[in-house]
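W.,

You were right to be curious about this one. When I first looked at the sequence I had no strong expectations either way, so I just let the prediction run and decided to look at it fresh. Below is the sequence, 141 residues in total, followed by the output.
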Amino acid sequence: MAAFSAALSAALLEKLVPEAPVQRRLRAIRRDALVLIDRDAVLFARVIQATRSGNQQRFRRALKQATGVPCRVAEHAGAVAAACRRAQLRVRPTFQSDLRCAAALAAAAETGARALIATNLAWLKDAAYARTIRRRLGAIR
């Protein structure tokens, strides 16, 4: 759901901003977020399979791989949220409600992605990996 929210926020903002480079960046985010929806399903299925196998090493490997998806979603959501803040003065007053919706969707996407990451890190109990992921998330503006 977080990837879908990120894609939706990028699509909405893409229609509001007049600058072509910003539109292109938002389009790329939207497209990647849509790909991440399917990627998340595939990787989560692998986590379930690994859980059922009882192989702890396979489970940890699958869960680490799956954690990459919400990390990318959080990064995309952060980029859209930052673009929303920058666009605030350029978006016409009659479209400010759409801008606020785009910002709210980006915030929801980031919150959801971060919650999933926190859950995965709790399952993994790998302090070094958790530090790496937290550093990555700390770079999000």
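Here's what jumped out at me. The domain at 2-138 is CATH 1.20.120.680 (Four Helix Bundle (Hemerythrin (Met), subunit A)). And, maybe more interesting for your project: The CA atoms of residues 52 and 106 lie 34 Å apart.

Coffee later to discuss?

I.
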